[in-house]
Every structure is written in structure tokens, then in C-alpha cells.
Amino acid sequence: MLGFRRATALVRATEFTLPDPPVEPAPRPGGYPDNLTRAIAEAKATRWFASEAESIPGVRRALAVIVGTISTFTLSAWRGNVKLDAAALPWLAQPDPARTSQSILAATIRDGVWFDRSVWRVTPGGYYRISPDRIVPVPAADPDRPPTWMLDGRPAPMSDLVVFDFAGAGGLRKWGAPLLAMFATLMAAAAKYADEPVPSVILKNTGVDVSTAAMTAITDKWESDRAAGRTGFLNAYLDAQFPGYHARDLQLVEIMDQATKDVARLFGLPGFALGVDTGSSMTYTTTAEQRRDLLEALKPWTTTVEQTLSMDTYAVSLTSTGVTASRRGLYVPYGTDVRFDVADFLRGSFPERVAALVQATGGAIMTPLEARTLEPTITDPAAMGGIANATDAASPAL
Fold it and tell me: How many helices (H) and strands (E) does the chain have?
């Protein structure tokens, strides 16, 4: 916790000190202007801050929901409403040949949470993620233009990089530092109470003073009798007092619960994702509905990845007839969109899916054969309930 507070102080120093740059944790690269030195220091302080912040249970759970959920999705290519075969762009299944798709996606989203950006570097066989404290943005003269980049002290061409800009959805080392630092202090107070709890019983001498050795003998006898289950006794000069303080009296339970609620708000997650009630009206929801709500909360993260990998640009060429401009995709062919495949995630429970198919066939939205195709695990037609006796004019009955 002390490290967390020191990290918070360093983050604040890198943001608000003027005009001198903060002391950089690593040797300063030659030729770096002061503003880039400050950016490097911020990145290193942020990494320290994040490692300490993730020790807070609510933060750890929020990251498990955001990073853990998104990293299990797979990237796929689409043209309009048609999903392309995986062989069309095989690198989407594993962008980094040396790591699993889950590994690079988890690191990408985690960087977005704390740094508000993540960067991949282009390699002949795919991409690999760059640690944010290795790369520094160099602001353009026009503040509305994107920055250029320096990697390990050298200019990095944009053609070699894929920059995921989360546009303020992340960067929680800046926006969440005061809140998370406060919770870290409260957790430290709870830990101190656990290490040094208020004694459950106090023996108070109301008569003449006795020596320390005598009082030690009395308290030792009292504790040994309690441990053995024997009846205790007091004389006319000793009074037993029971303070009775515990975690709930000190509101430590409520403090930790409030911390989790505020973390849910900070990360933009619905309360049910962290197992708390954030005060919104709650009605009965199915598993599929909760997952749809969670997917909506994850959209600021998933949309950034999808739109970045789907970006295109103009290619200008000089021909015999003049200058022509055509559009081309930066990372996938023009006209192709990259999306996360969330179909399996949004599937409801088996009874919910069967009930939906019963309604679909009963309303003539699909045929029983089509319904059976969507649920190939159904081997007994009776399991389909209302469509067990339905028939398809072009196929045998289910």
C-alpha cells in the first residue's frame, strides 16, 4: 500500500509540476526534449501504479471482467453481413505468431485501461504488442492531428505501428488515481486493524496498584482459564470490560463494499458484473440479457479494437491520365470489417434457446428443420416441446 501511495504521488507529480520535468526512473535517452522525458516518466509511474492498484479486490475483479471477457473473443472478418471464412485472413485468429490470441488481446485491453492506448508493431508474420513505457507520442504542431511516435529513443514510422486510441475510455491511472489511492489507504487501515485488533476483554484494576509481574500473572491465568473452558472469577478490585469492537462496528465491511461499487462506476461496469448493487433499479433478467448488458458496457473497448483494425486510407498514384486516388485498407482489404465474434457469448441457457425456437417455429419465422440445425445437440424431438409435432413441408418431422 505504501508503494501505491508513492506511485500515486509520482503520477500526480508528472502531471502537475511546472516547468521542470520530474526525475525519470530510468536513464534519460540522449536527445529527448523535456516533454518527452516527462511522458516516459509518466508511463513508468503508470506501470507501477497499475501493479499496486490491481491489489484492490474490486479493481482485480473489474479487470477480470473487462480483460478476461474480451480476450476470450476471437477476431473475424466480415463483408457487410457476411462472415468470411477464417482462411481469408488467418492472422486474425493469432495476430502474434509467438503468442495466443488471448495473450495479445488481454495485454492490449489492459494497456488501454491504464494508459488509454495500446500499440502493436508490424512484423513480417503478424504483429506484437509493445509495452507502453517503450513508446512516446510526439505531439504534432496542429493539436488536432495525430502524434508521431518514438520507440526506444528512435522515430517509429506509422506504417510500422498499429495504435489503438481508446479516446478517454481508459487512462484510469489519471482519472482514478485519487479514488484508488483513497481505497488503498482504507485497505491499509483494515489491515492494521486485523494486525492490531482491539482486545475483546480488558481487565481493569480498580483498587490498589499491583506490580507489572502480578498483573501479567493475573491476565495469563485469565487467558488460560478461558482457553480451557474453566469458569473465570474476579476479586473486588478487578473489573472485566468488553469493548466489543469488530469490523462492522468500524464500518470496514461497508467501506469495502462501497469501494467495489465505486470501482464498478469507475470502470463503467454494471453492478452485477462485480456482485454489487450500484443503486440502479434491478429487475429479473436472464443470463442472455445480462450478457447483452455486459457487452454494451464493454463496447468502448471492443469498438476501439474493431475500428482500428478496420481502418482504411487513400492511396494516391500518378498515371498517364493524371492523379488518381483510391481507398485501401490499412490492415485488412478495403471493404472488410474486423469484428469480435460474440455469438457464443450471447447464447442463452439451453432452456432459453429452446423456448425461443419454439416461438420462432410457432410463428412461422423458421422451419423445424432450421430450428434443429441451430440446436444440433437435440436428438430427441420431444425435447423441442411445442415444435415436437411440427412438420416441415420440405423435410420430415422433427
Answer: 12, 13
Phi, psi torsion values for 259, nearest 5 degrees: -60, -45
* Stretch (H or E) spanning 23: none
**Is it true that the peptide bond before 157 is cis, omega within 30 degrees of 0?**
no
Determine the length of the chain. Answer: 398
pTM of the model: 0.68
Instruction: List phi, psi (to 5°) of 135.
Output: -125, 140
Residues 6+ apart with CB under 8 A from 356: 348
Which residues, in sequence order, are CB contacts of 326 under 8 Å at separation 6+? 314, 315, 317
Residue 224 gets which letter from DSSP?
A: H
What residue type is 80 in one-letter code? G
20 half-sphere exposure, CB direction, 13 A CA radius: 3
Output the tens digit of pLDDT for each of the chain's 398 residues. 545 555 555 444 444 333 344 444 444 444 445 556 667 677 777 777 787 788 777 888 899 999 999 999 999 999 988 889 988 899 999 999 999 999 999 999 999 999 899 999 998 889 999 998 888 888 777 878 878 888 888 888 888 999 999 988 888 877 777 777 777 777 676 666 666 556 667 788 777 777 888 888 888 888 888 778 788 777 777 787 776 555 555 566 676 777 778 888 888 888 888 877 655 555 556 777 888 899 999 999 999 999 999 998 877 777 777 777 778 888 999 999 999 998 888 776 677 777 777 777 777 677 777 777 777 666 555 544 444 444 343 334 43
Q: How far apart are CA 35 and CA 18, in angstroms?
A: 11
Strand partners, 340: 75
